[in-house]
Structures are given as structure tokens and as C-alpha cells.
Amino acid sequence: xxxxxxxxxxxxxxxxxxxxxxxxxxxxxxLLQNNSYWGDGKAEVDLYDAQxxxxxxxxxxxxxxxxxxxxxxxxxxxxxxxxxAEAISGIRMSQIFTAPIGLGVEQHSLSLFWNGAADLLAGSxxxxxxxxxxVVQAEGLPENRSLCTEVxxxxxxxxxxxxxxxxxxxxxxxxxxxxxxxxxxxxQPAAEFEFQMAAPLASPGQFKTSKASYKVNERAIxxxxxxxxxxxxxxxDREFPFLMREWKTRDGSQFxxxxxxxxxxxxxxxxxxxxxxxxxxxxxxxD
Length: 287
Description:
By secondary structure, the chain is mainly β. The chain contains 4 helices and 15 strands. The N and C termini lie far apart (50 Å).
């Protein structure tokens, strides 16, 4: 079944890719709802030393992960202007890297937006290589719990895909993991739990049963996410806001935190501002 183009979603108003928060009991929305952390007008900017696996080889680069409070307005038709009430407040995550690939590069820019209840409302992915650009946009259809994606490939060809969320239980996309593992209810006794997970936006597919487990030591929380034989490992700070210190992915890519800042990064856009921010101890998260 070919999904309707995204412009037809303009009539839907508030949309959600995820299941209701009540079904995500293992993933608590408390991190996203913490006003003292997100209400200061600043973003969390995390810089990772990255080894991106491409064609069986690690490609060294830096990944930037930005988490911030933002607003999302459902798309509208030309004849309809959204009211202020339709702007939804939530958390946006941007994941960006540029990896060297031979004579060229791969540029990756992923953006996801959740509301305060940790429902994923929208996502987009842009991948640029020497062969061209690939763009994926996604929005959900709440009435049938499906995800519609519109893909424009490197040749400019447009295709669509619709697939459905499970009728019950927790269900997320793989792309959500850098935030979702930080929202596990660590106050509960450590135990393995199941949830449903779909492939990334780059190649969305069917949901599969995944398992997550964690253990807490004196300084850190170790989280494992399994999908059959595939395994992702995370190392988080033990204390709020549970910063992601390390991520070893199922494809062999690795990310290790170099710097974490809490800053109004949009005011650091001039030449030399990056160095100035990194040297400012008032912006740095404690090690």
C-alpha cells in the first residue's frame, strides 16, 4: 500500500509515531519533562570521538549530538494557518557527523522530535555522499498507529512506505536509542525487559522483539540492547541526566564522549566560538 504524500498529513493535526506513554512503562518520560534541566534556555551539546563503520572499515570523525527544548508545529495546508495552540513543546535531538569515505565524505544529519510524554512526533534524515543526497521524512498516523515515510533518493526519485506499530507494548525506532536508553526507569530493580524496535529511518522495516538490560556500578550504568544476535552497548552516567558516555553499535561503530556542554549554542556561531565554548568551565558538564 502506497502511503499518502506528506502534504495530505497536513489535515491530521497532532500526530505521533509512538505508542501512548502508558505503554512505555520501561521508558519513563521524566527526563524529557524535567523543567529545571531543559527550561534554562540552553541545549545539551555532546561531542563524541566516532569510528563509523563503512564497507567493513572504521572511519574516524566526530559526532555531534544536540538535545534541546523546541517546538513542533504539525504541517498545514496553504489555506490553513496553525494557531499558537497547535505548536507543541518537546525535545529535539539532532545527530550530525561527516565521515571520510575515500576521496569523498558521507554527511549524516538526523533530527527527531518527541513531546513531553516521550511520543515521537516527527523525524527526518539527510544523507549526502558523492553520489548525491538522500532525504527521508516521516510522520505518524495516530488513527491506525502507522508510520508514513517519504524518501527522495540520490536520483531525485520519490517513494513512500507505510508500516504499522504493534497494537500493544513499547515500540520505538532504532534511531531513538541514544535518548531512549537514558529514559529507562533506573529506579526500578534491574531486570531484562522486552520491547519492539524497528530499523532506522534510513531503511525502515518491520518491528522485531528486542531486549534491554542494565546494571549499575559505583559511577556508571551499563545498558545492553539486543535484537536477536545484534547487540548495542551503552555506558551512561549513574546520576541525572544520565549522559551517554559510550555507545558501541551492532555494526561495529563506536562513540566515546569527549565533551559535554550545556550552552545556548545558537549564540556561538562566530569564528573562534567553538574553542571559546569548549574552554569555558561554566558550560561543561562535570566528568
